[in-house]
Amino acid sequence: MANTRLVELFLELAKLDGLSGKEAPVAAFAVSFLKELDLPARQDGAAAVSGSDTGNVVCPVGGGGDFVLLAHMDTARSTASTRQVVADGRITSDGKGQLGADNRAGMAAILCAVERAVNSGQPLKPFTIAFTTQEETSMAGGLNLGLPPGVRCGFVFDSSLDPGEYAIASPGAAIFSARVAGKPSHAGIAPEKGVCAIRIAARAISALEFGRHDEETTSNIGTITGGEATNVVPGSALVRGEVRSLDIARVPPILDRIKAGFEKAAADAGGGVQFDWAWDFKPYRHAPDSEVCRLAAAALCAAGLEPAPVPSHGGSDANSLNAKGVATVNFGIGARNPHADDEYILLDHLEKATEVVWQLIKK
Length: 363
Fold this sequence. Notes:
With 363 residues, the chain is an alpha+beta fold.
């Protein structure tokens, strides 16, 4: 028998529209929900620097304690017109939009467990609840999250791994841009007077290797823009991409090779290039016997699950918290096909994620 209250709470959350940067309705729901439980929920000041229409929701329980439970409020696509369907042991959309399990399932698991504890009079450990903005885009919410000073461990409920699995390592991603400068000219009257920036970019890309470099490292060209009209030799082009790795040391050498490739192609053609890069988020890795992993494993065992520490190949707010010095892992909650029209979550997985929260917070 499915946990009726848990399903009801997830459906309430999933119906709220909260694209990255526009999470205000979700934040308002969370703050109201927690205040009705007589918990001190508030919004932090992250909106002033993140660009979102709301701050992160932060709720210190019993003073805030030494650990935080976290899920993000935003979705990659709108859920405003999505109809949620509960059938055959799972929750899906009607196939016409994103369900929103990523990450309203994590929010529902945390809120349902906390509500159960408060309503049943269960004594709780001191801890902090945090719901962040913009995880799907810039991670600006997590990067600017205001936490109580005693928080040293974090547990994020935002992985498509199965319950029991948790990410103890995650790659970092460095975003690069190559602004190629050529020389515009009339493509019909004097093409020989021009230097084609798009051609420079194409030659650089074709001479470089992208994709999987090793089991921990990948690179990708994501977007190419340039030119003004079909009758103008394009004088500029912009190429953007990323290098991603679990090992922070493997990223700069690949970026150096990409930069050198663009510079060579530009010099050969009589053009120029400005190459820039910056970390979008940095990698993290925890030893299985570290404090945060021991706490995670203990909660999973208490929830009747077999702990399985694994590396992840995607980024999350766990990267942001680790970068802030809060040792954090990301629990599997089983949300499948995130962002897609066929996204779904098994009721059993949602219930198991909620039980893990329960084991973390109860005394």
